[in-house]
Amino acid sequence: MTNEIATIVRGAEFSPPAVFAPDPAAAKRFLEFFTANIRNPNTRRAYWRAVREFAAWWDQQNIGELRDIEPVHVATYVETLQLRMAAPSVKVHLAGIKMLFDWLVIGQVVAINPAAVVRGPKHSVKEGSTPVLSSDDTRTLLDSIDVSTPIGQRDRALIALMTYTFARVGAVIKMQVEDAYEKNRRLWVCLHEKGGKRHDMPAHHSLEEYLHAYLDQTGIADGFLFRSAIARSGQLTDRPMAQQDVYAMIRRRVAVAGIETPRSKKTGCHSFRATGITEYLRNGGQLETAQKMANHESSRTTGLYDRRDDQVTLDEVERIRI
Question: Which whole number is the average pLDDT over 107-111?
C-alpha cells in the first residue's frame, strides 16, 4: 500500500489489516469506507475497533483469505464476542462488520456479504442507563457555580443549554456565537446535530439569562461560543472545548456541589439531556413534543430518557412502613 493511500483521520491511521488488503484496490476501498463513507467520528471509531478486532480474530484462526470468509465464520466470531461483551456492544461490532462488507461488495472487492445473514443477540431496552439528576440537584448544581469568572459563566451557560434544549454535547461544543440569535424578541439557539441536521430551539428564560450574562462578561462577539481555557489562568482561548473537557468540567462541578451519584453511574454530559426530558414530561409535556425538541427519529428513543417512573416506584416503596 502506498503512502498516498494511507489516510490520517483525527490522528489515527486507518491502515487496513492484512486480510482486508489482498491488493491495492481492496486496501483503497477499505480506507474509503472509513474516510469517505462514514462522517460521524464516534461511529468511525466504533466501527474501526470492531473491524480491527475481527481481523485479528480471523488471523488467529488461520483459515484463509478475505474471499474465504463465510457466514459461519462471522457467526462464530459473534459467539466469541458474547462471552466478553454486553449485547449492545456485540450489536455495534456486528453492524460495523456488516456495513464494511456491504461497502466491499459494492466496490466489487468481494462477491457477497458474509455477515448479511448473521443475527446479533436479542436486546430490548425500556429505560436508558444514563444517570438523571433531579430538578433540585440540577438547581443546586447551577447555583453552586461561581459566576464571577468567565469560566464560571461559561460552565453555567453550557450546563443550562444541555438541560433546557436537550442538546447533545457534540452539538453544543460546535456552536458559534451567531447560533444564539434573537427572533421575535426572544433568544433562540441553533444546534447542528448528527447527520448535518439544523435544529432551532427557543431558549428557556433561565438559559436566555445565563447566555446573555456569559457573553456580556466575556465580550465574545464571534467564533466558538463555548471555549477552552488556558490552564490556571482563567482566560478563555479562541478554540472550542473538547468533549472530554466538558465531561471533566461536569465531574468537577458535581463534586463541588456535593451531589451524590452512584459510582457505577457518574453524571456526565448526557445526563442533562435525560434530566431535561424527564422534567419536561414530569410537568405535563407530551412525549411527541419531547421527541421533536430532542431531535430524535423515534419517540421510542425519547422514551429511554423518561425516568418519571423512578419517582413513582420510590413513592410506592416508601409505603412499606416497618
Answer: 95
